[in-house]
What we know:
The complex is a heterodimer.
Chain A: H1 2-11, H2 20-40, E1 45-51, H3 57-65, E2 77-79, E3 88-92, H4 100-109, E4 115-119, H5 120-125, E5 147-149, H6 156-167
Parallel strand pairs in A: 1-2, 1-3, 3-4, 4-5
Chain B: H1 3-12, E1 17-18, E2 28-31, H2 37-46, E3 50-58, E4 66-74, E5 77-85, E6 91-93, H3 102-113, E7 116-118, E8 166-171, E9 183-189, E10 192-199, H4 207-211, H5 216-223, H6 231-246, H7 252-280, H8 284-305, E11 314-315, E12 318-319, H9 325-351, H10 353-359, H11 367-373, H12 377-382, H13 389-392, H14 401-404, H15 416-440, E13 458-464, E14 469-476, E15 482-488, H16 491-501, H17 510-517, H18 522-525
Helix pairs in contact in B: 5-6, 6-7, 7-8, 7-15, 7-17, 8-9, 9-15, 15-17
Amino acid sequence: MIRILRQIFRTGIVTEPLQAEVAEEIKEVGARLEEAIRQRFRRSLTIRQVDAGSCNGCELEIHAMNNPIYNCERFGMHFTASPRFADMLLVSGPVARNMEIALRRTYDATPSPKLVIAVGDCGCNGGIFGESYASLGGIDRVIPVDAYIPGCPPSPTALLKGILKAVG
Amino acid sequence: MNMLKEAIISVFGSEAKLAESQRPASVATCVVPRDRFSEAAKVMKKAYALLVAEWAADESALGRGYGVFACYRWGSEYLIVKTEVPSDDPWFPSLSKRFVPAFRFERQIMSLMGITATGNPDVRPWIKFEDWPEDAWPLRKSFDAAQQMPRVAGEYAWARAEGEGVYEIPVGPVHAGIIEPGHFRFQAIGEDVINLEERLGYVHKGIEKKFESLAWQDGAKLAGRVSGDTTVAHALAYCMAVESMTGCRVPERAHWLRALFLERERIANHLGDIGAICNDAAFAFMLYQLSRLKEMLLRTNLRLFGHRFIMDRIIPGGVTVNIDPAGKRKILAEMDLLARDFEKLVTIYDENSSLDDRLRDTGILKPATARELCVVGIVARASGLNLDCRISHPFPPYDRHDWMELDVPVLISGDVHARAWVRIHEVRESVRIIRKILEDMPDSGLSVPVARPSPDISGFAAVEGWRGEIIYWLQSGHAGEISRCVVRDPSSVNWLGLELAVLGNIVPDFPLCNKSFNQSYSGHDL
């Protein structure tokens, strides 16, 4: 136990302010954002992530948002296991034909009002997989999308920024 | 001396013909008559070989019918056995009697290429869903990849269990966490799992078909997106297969940089996995500590190589980024920091009795079963199989065995703990290798141009990604274009291991078992 405590104290708090490239924006967006989340979502923005056919690259970066360095919970956002509790769907793509029905059902199960964000180049427009017999292309081919976060994969900072913009 | 080739020739004699079109020359291809295809599997089984993969290619554009291939491995040898199947009578004898993983490979061949494996008791479609038109066989040359398929009515025949107290738990495709989609169906009595049936294919994006429309250079980009967490190893395996077809000699330094990327990818993913396994046993401390270390690695990747996962940095003929002395120092300092913190965390893992209680004896894949299933990579090494392509199928600098002294951890308990511990050992080993690579990296160019492959030849490559052995098999068409690209992610065989490892465990331990395997959905579904 003493080792665990020592490691915890020695590590300290590693959460960083958002990086320089967005620091300026964050100064203004950050304040507005926290305000927005506080008012519109009662301090808690609940996100349901859906992989509609991605290569898992976007999921790695979405995971990284939860690590102690990006610590997305400090902005009041957290990930939920069920779409029934979600305010927002964070969908990575492209939409595989075999996932189309599951994606529609997840969308229908999410209570309104809801936000949908398409994540990654593939989520935005199908990316390298494009449209084919097995891939339907971007997320907006199947469900309405409110915001897009491009990148292959988008970095955790880009994801945070994109989500902040969508709610702010 | 190629033992497997000798074994085939000694039984088949002149009926087995060697195909000259296979590259590299060390991987032989024997063509056997169709009715003796499963007999070849019997010979391989007797020679103690394991089935690596089974696939089919539509060779109608090359003036033939279909080719059905089975690839076997014994020690460091690979042998491909091919049989030719006429287009108007598409069947071949099933290998499922000899090799268990053939079940799924053949279901895939039947579903996507429309060639029947006679004797395979399970003819349910795989990856192809019940709502696809029955005659949609996307890997056939006559199939138009751009078409939108209509949905038809159909039903999937699930395995059933009945009896007093038996109930079913369907899970997925959309899972509770931030993970890829797939469906698991449990039958349980009380807490005990009596059967698990996986249903995969949800993220099928038509990758193998897509390759056929790409130029050789662009294929590396797509290979890097077969499974995003294994982008380096997949791109590398693809490039090595292309290079084997063209006889291209990659500069020495490029090889070493590729090895550096491969080991960095291994460490990053293992750190994430060890943390996630502990987290699923409710020990979140480890997840956060290890994800902090993982983030450190990814940021260094971004700074030195321009991408957090080193995507698109490996191309046919070499690599696109170099490392300068300052970069080397940066990585060496990072390795010191990583090793120091990692060892502290391993001590905490090792001393934690509640982890011990949850991880040991959970989700056991016995060595005999692992062998039957022909599993690869970390799953194999945790179950007593000593398999590692870095030793058996090396590229520089791994081929300098005496200098590298690669230590491959092999445990025999086959439980969650063993799979976590293999990862721990591999992280240590990769740190050591990275230091060695940086010390001795030779100077040379970074890439050479790659010629267009000659018509109608095939290339093969095996690379040890962090999950295990990745296989690429490429075939060129009559104009020297990509005619077929076969991708065999470790997940294609290892998913079977999970189905058997959870039997007899309690339902709440499934996430733990699943996490310890951590197989790719995208790499499997393609």
